Amino acid sequence: MLRCIQPQKVIQPFLRNQHALQKRTLASISPDLENAYDVVIIGGGVAGVTLACSLASRPSLRNSRIALVEAMDLTGVRNWEPKPDNYSNRVVSLTPGSMSFFDQIGVTKHMALDRANGYRDMQVWDGVTDARIHLDSAILKDYGSKGLKENTIAYMAENLNVQSAALKRIEECRANGSQIDLIQQVKVAEIEGPKEEEKKADEDLDLHDWPTVHLDNGRKLKARLLIGADGINSPVRNFANIDSLGWDYDAQGVVATLKLDPTRPNNTAWQRFLPTGPIAMLPLSEGYASMVWSTTPAIAKALKNVSSTDFCNLVNAAFRMSHIDLKYLYKQIDMQTFKPACDISEEYHWRESVAKKSMNDQEIFDREFSLPPEIIQVQDKSRASFPFRLRNAESYVSDRVALVGDAAHATHPLAGQGMNQGLLDVECLSQLLEKGATEGQDIGNIHLLRQYASERYLRNIMMITSCDKLHRLFSTDAAPVTWARSLGLNAVNNTGFLKAEIMKYAMGIEQTGEFRH
Predict the structure, then answer these.
(1) Per-residue pLDDT averaged across 453-459, rounded?
(2) Does the CA dihedral 346-351-354-355 come out positive or negative?
(3) What is the pTM assigned to this prediction?
(4) Of the residues 102, 264, 415, 448, which has the maximum number of CB atoms within 10 A of its CB?
C-alpha cells in the first residue's frame, strides 16, 4: 500500500553507498537528517499527484527522496469508485497530449477509462448573431496530420478519476522501490529560508541553503527542491517572494451535471457565447453532460437556487433563445426568494413553439440537430459556482523553488485549457529534472530551473491572453463588434486549414517543446 505519513509517524531513512552520487542525492543521510528530501511537493491536487507520479516513474529519479504534502485526507480519493449514472461536478477536459503524458507515466492504466469520454466534434457559436464554427477533428487528416493515431479533440473526465489513478500509480512505484512519501492531513505552518549559521563543512551534503517546511504537527522537512502545486493562493509562491499579477473577473462559473434527452446522440461539445458569458455543455457519457455557465454573480446565485425544473428550462433557453429573451427570464426571478414571477417552463415552451411555427418538418429537424440535446434533469446537489480569475506569477522559479499549475497561473476557463496547461508544466519540469539528474546536476539549482521557466512562461502567457481577449470580444452585444466577430467566425468556419490549426493547438499536438517526448 502507498505509505501515508500521519502526524508523528517517523520515516525510516534509506541508504546507498555509491560515492559517485553522494553530492547529488541523499544516499548518505544520517538518522538526524531523516526529514531531508530531494523534492518536496506542496499540494495533492491533480498537478501535485501527477508531478509526484511523473518523478517516481523516471529511472534517473527513482532513487530520489520525494515527499508529497497535502492538508486533506486523500484516502477517499485513492479508494474512489465510480457510481453508474452519478458524476462529480468537478471535471476536466483532457487533451490527447495530456492523455499521452498519462500513458508515459503509467497513470492511464489505473483510470476508469469508461469515465473518460472522448469527443471529436465541437459546435461553437455567437449568441447574438448565430455565426458559428463547427470543429470536426476528422479534417486533420486532410491538413498534414495523416499520422495522427486518433482524432479525439478532448476527453471529459472527473478530477477524482485522475487523482485516484495517480495515487494508485504512486503506490505501484513505491512497490517497485521508489522513495516517495505521502504526508497528509497536515498543513504548512511556515516555510523558512536558509540560515547562514546552519552551514556545514560537510563537503558531501550541505543543506544550509535548502528551504525548511514547518508542518503544523511540529515536523520540519528540508527540501533540495520545493515545488508549489498548492493553488492560486500558494504559500510556496509567497515564501519565494514571487508576485502574482492579474485580476478577478466580475463573473462566476456555474457547474452542474445534466441528464439529457435520451433520443439524441451525445457525442458533441457545445459552446454558445452570450453577452453575459459563454455556456458550454460537454459530453460525459451517453445521456449525461457537464455544464459550465459563465455569467454575472447575480445570475449565478439565481441559477444555483432556483428549482431544478426552472434550472433545466433556463439552461435549455440559454442554448436556444435570443439573449433578449434570456434577459427577460432573468428579470422574472426574485433575487431574494429565487421564485419566478412567471411560469418559466410555460415561457420556455411557448417561445420554442413560436420559433418553430413557420418552419416545415425538415427545417425543424435541421434546427434541432444544430442545437444540443434538451436537458431533462439536473443531478441532485451537482450545482455549484466558482469565481473566475486571471493570474500569472512574475516568475515560475526561484533558487530551490518551482511553481506549477494554479500556483503559477490561472486563466478564464472558456477554452478548457487551464488543467492542460498545468499538466504541461508538470511534464516539462519533470523531464528537465530527469535531464539534470542524469547529468549529475543539483536539481534545485536556479540555473537548471530557469530552463523550465523559459520553456513554459511564454506559452502560458499566450494561452492566458488569448482566453482573456476572447472573453472581452464576446462579452458585448454592441453592433460594430458583433458584426466584426461574425465575419471572423464565418471566415474561420469556411477555412479548413485554420480550423485544423485551432484544433491542433486545442488538442496539445501543435508543437512539442524541448522537454516533451
Answers:
(1) 94
(2) negative
(3) 0.88
(4) 102
